[in-house]
Amino acid sequence: MNKNKLTTSWGAPVGDNQHSMTAGSRGPTLIQDVHLLEKLAHFNRERVPERVVHAKGAGAHGYFQVTNDVSKYTKANFLSEVGKRTPLFIRFSTVAGENGSADTVRDPRGFAVKFYTEEGIYDLVGNNTPVFFIRDAIKFPDFIHTQKRDPQTHLKNPTAVWDFWSLSPESLHQIMILMSDRGIPATYRHMNGYGSHTFKWVNAEGEGVWVKYHIKTEQGIKNLAPKVAVEIAGENPDYHTEDLFNSIEEGDFPSWKVSVQIMPLEDANKYRFDPFDVTKVWSHKDYPMIEVGRIVLNRNPENYFAEVEQATFSPGSFVPGIEASPDKMLQGRLFAYADAHRYRVGANHQHLPINRSKSEVRTYQRDGQMRFDDNGGKSPYYEPNSFDGPEESPEHRPSTSVVSGLAESVGFDHHDHYTQPGDLYRLLSDEEQERLIQQIVASMAPVTKDEIKLRQIQHFYKVDPTFGKRIAQGLGIAIFN
Ligand code: NDP
């Protein structure tokens, strides 16, 4: 068959793709035009459900290259020798907006990295901020409801946003970063990425350390002034998506330096903050940055849907040498991400080319919707078996850890939500502080209940009294009689 011949989805040649089959030139369309039926029916099903969060995104392919030997901390094969390169795919995103929303809004940015290692997929599913609004996954659906649309008006609702934040003071640190200049990056290329959570690295001797990832832009941090961002949102809502694609297309490949902070396991109980609390950072002075490697993005997707929309990242996709920590937010995400993809893309989402491991996948999983490979053929489909089916490798058992305590619904055992946001406030220049305050005032002004404003001002006052006073002043609220 001529390779340019149009076919139906079942492979038969199409006789006419421009005219429906009708009963005479002016008569009704015939149901026997099965090519038309198939074309319309498939079109109706072109969308998969959009992600509830991180719906609007852009992605690109590239590589990670090791620049420093960290094998004394981790046996992860892709980090095993200086110079080693591993292909990767990154998806950047905003969080709260829908798939068609503007790129240049004030919002954290997703920074999800998929490493195609020789020992399977490793997903580092981070953000452009080192902390998060909440530290227990049980609060996530409520938090996101406040970021999404009001059920009655279908509008964004600043009262809900600040009500939740003022009643969840652990959010302060992330609020400060979001309202600072870094809340609107100039492009996806001009922002940092962070693993945010604490993870565990384990070396070949089975010794562990706690680790935090920092992915710093080599383009330099650049941000957009709010007024400029609003103008761009009107003129070109896809500004960041376009910038990433065009830069790579023009050969101007964005790059990032990857570093880690390493904490000895025994420090976790002694450190002045809970190192598994994702609303906190580890001071650079206490745990200095150790270089690991470099990320370069050098290839655009050929097809947005196949590569960007269908990409599925899960913080639970670990490889030997990298493990979870007790971070309560991470523990919830270990379930929620893979589950979102099973719902959104399907039970076999990991078989899609963008998600599939480059190393051979050998499981006893079978069947499920859209299982489009040979489904394991006639090979053994249960374990244990006597037919040479794949077997576990005991050397890859995860490291052990001691856990103790009562099984109960319990909060964190410390409540200092103010020191680190205060440190951040005080490291900003006078101009940066002024812009931060202006931004918070503008964001809080539409809140309809004074009780909420007052409660939040008290938190800002505890961060730094001058800061709290200036916000109160900006909102025209007297905090001292
Ligand atoms: P350092 O002075 O060593 O680090 C300060 C950090 O602040 C730098 O990483 C800098 O990033 C970052 N920074 C500067 N402006 C902003 C901003 N508007 N939003 C977010 N980050 C910004 O001090 P410490 O390690 O003791 O941390 C002090 C405070 O800095 C923390 O409480 C935290 O709020 C903030 N911070 C700390 C990080 C950490 O991992 N320790 C990471 C990011 C922020 P850069 O080098 O790119 O300019």
TrEMBL record:
<dbReference type="InterPro" id="IPR024711">
    <property type="entry name" value="Catalase_clade1/3"/>
</dbReference>
<dbReference type="InterPro" id="IPR018028">
    <property type="entry name" value="Catalase"/>
</dbReference>
<feature type="compositionally biased region" description="Polar residues">
    <location>
        <begin position="1"/>
        <end position="10"/>
    </location>
</feature>
<dbReference type="GO" id="GO:0004096">
    <property type="term" value="F:catalase activity"/>
</dbReference>
<keyword id="KW-0560">Oxidoreductase</keyword>
<keyword id="KW-0349">Heme</keyword>
<dbReference type="InterPro" id="IPR011614">
    <property type="entry name" value="Catalase_core"/>
</dbReference>
<feature type="region of interest" description="Disordered">
    <location>
        <begin position="1"/>
        <end position="25"/>
    </location>
</feature>
<feature type="domain" description="Catalase core">
    <location>
        <begin position="7"/>
        <end position="391"/>
    </location>
</feature>
<dbReference type="InterPro" id="IPR040333">
    <property type="entry name" value="Catalase_3"/>
</dbReference>
<dbReference type="InterPro" id="IPR010582">
    <property type="entry name" value="Catalase_immune_responsive"/>
</dbReference>
<feature type="region of interest" description="Disordered">
    <location>
        <begin position="350"/>
        <end position="404"/>
    </location>
</feature>
<dbReference type="InterPro" id="IPR020835">
    <property type="entry name" value="Catalase_sf"/>
</dbReference>
<protein>
    <recommendedName>
        <fullName>Catalase</fullName>
        <ecNumber>1.11.1.6</ecNumber>
    </recommendedName>
</protein>
<dbReference type="InterPro" id="IPR002226">
    <property type="entry name" value="Catalase_haem_BS"/>
</dbReference>
<keyword id="KW-0408">Iron</keyword>
<keyword id="KW-0479">Metal-binding</keyword>
<feature type="compositionally biased region" description="Basic and acidic residues">
    <location>
        <begin position="357"/>
        <end position="376"/>
    </location>
</feature>
<dbReference type="Pfam" id="PF00199">
    <property type="entry name" value="Catalase"/>
</dbReference>
<keyword id="KW-0376">Hydrogen peroxide</keyword>
<comment type="similarity">
    <text>Belongs to the catalase family.</text>
</comment>
<dbReference type="Pfam" id="PF06628">
    <property type="entry name" value="Catalase-rel"/>
</dbReference>
<keyword id="KW-0575">Peroxidase</keyword>
<dbReference type="InterPro" id="IPR024708">
    <property type="entry name" value="Catalase_AS"/>
</dbReference>
